[in-house]
Specification:
This protein is of the alpha+beta class. The protein is globular, with a radius of gyration of 25 Å. Among the domains are: 127 residues, 2-Layer Sandwich (Methyltransferase, Cobalt-precorrin-4 Transmethylase, Domain 2); 78 residues, no CATH class; 83 residues, Winged helix-like DNA-binding domain superfamily/Winged helix DNA-binding domain (Arc Repressor Mutant, subunit A), CATH 1.10.10.10. The chain contains 15 helices and 22 strands. It starts with a helix and ends in an 8-residue tail after the last strand. The strands form six sheets. The chain has a seven-stranded mixed sheet with strand order 13-12-16-17-20-19-18. The protein has a four-stranded mixed sheet with strand order 1-2-5-4, sandwiched between helices. Strands 3-6-7-8 form a four-stranded antiparallel sheet. Helix 14 crosses helix 15.
Length: 485
Amino acid sequence: MSHDKLKRAISIGETVDIEFKRCSGSIENDTYETVCSMLNRFGGDIYLGIEDNGELNGVPEKSAQSLIKNFISMMGNPAIISPTVYLTPEIIDFDGKKVIHVHIPSSSEVHTFKKVVFDRVGDADIKVTATSQIAQMYIRKQKIFTEKKVYPYVRDEHLRLDMLPRIRQMALLRNDQHPWIKLTDVELLQSAGLIGEDMETGQRGYNLAAVMLLGRDDVILSISPVYRTDALLRKVNIDRYDDRLLVQTNLIDSYDLLMGFAEKHLLDKFYLEDDISISLRNKISREMLVNTLIHREFTSTYIAKFIIEKDRMYIENANRAIHGDIITPVNLEPNPKNPVIAAFFRNIGLADELGSGVRNLYKYSKRYSGQDPQLIDGDIFRIIVPLDDNYSFDAGNGKPQNKTSIKTSNKTSKEKNDVLIDVLILNHLRTNPNATQKEMCSITRQSLRAVQKAFASLQTRGLLRREGSKMNGIWVVENPSDEER
């Protein structure tokens, strides 16, 4: 490891993938908790001999080798870390002190420390006990794409094959030489990757992608009982909703239904691009809805949402996170969660090349509301697009985004995580004003101390206030000012 890399790590501070540990004469249990949590998340680097605040103390030179030997021994003990893992710590000379560096890879397994599962959230190691959260961790670790799971007993009568003429027409509009036009139904389904073979069992048949794209409603719900997209309008009655649409049908019809909901409740502002009038509302809604339909994890029990509020709209869906970060056009690394379904949507003109959605959202959100969107990659994926009915890009009478607003692309990982925690807290309190700070620990997967610090910061910035007594009061989320958005 280079001297410059350690210097950068100290300047950045602790993040989701950087952890400092004081180490005088022995390695404490919290170090092994961090090893476990990093193995279960995205990997990272642990530095022994550095305080939490970045102060360099070093480890005793005489005991450095024995510390490494004990560490390796603990990693090979299944009673400590299970499954066991082989790690190779190194000693670094830095400013006259000895620092032990341990690189933690992202593991394909879910590990435990003394039979307890830990996950890495921000710069904290969180004990995970809920079955649903542990299940989501296993989903995240899967090396296969769940859309390719074969269902050998799904037959033609279980699918909406009557949709194929419409699908061919959509493909024709996309490309007048599209090969699907001349293929038989079976050839089309094979070409689209909707018929597969389980290489473990030898079974062949329709896969999960085929069911989600073309399945009858009852068949979809039989295979994925909690599959649905809950669309809500919350502008007047924010405790419940002003309008609701529950969508539990195939992905293609789901797109049409959800786009209809967006068109019904969002302003279609006038905008010219290359002297052609385009619908900003449809551009943004399309990218949000296509993302939540084709990139979700269908095996999860988490219900996808599309919610329109007075000052924002957002989508949420279960996700198999890769990096766990706030996504911007600068750090974008396109990674298809369901490549078969995504390719099908591209063939029929409902999606473009991978990665274009992020760029379009940043481009058109700025023109629609004068503000940037937020794309938060986690076990629950979120896209948040600000709304401002008074803003007009062409008329020039909207309020541009203040320069002091949150610009995630220029923030450190720790600052990005703080933004994510704030978003989770405010989102939850909008619909659950009676929630306690202890409850928010499970929502944000942060320690009580970190949650209390976030609440204090939100109150200081005027984003959150308390009404009533400490025991019987409620939390009220304030509309942020331009500087605080």
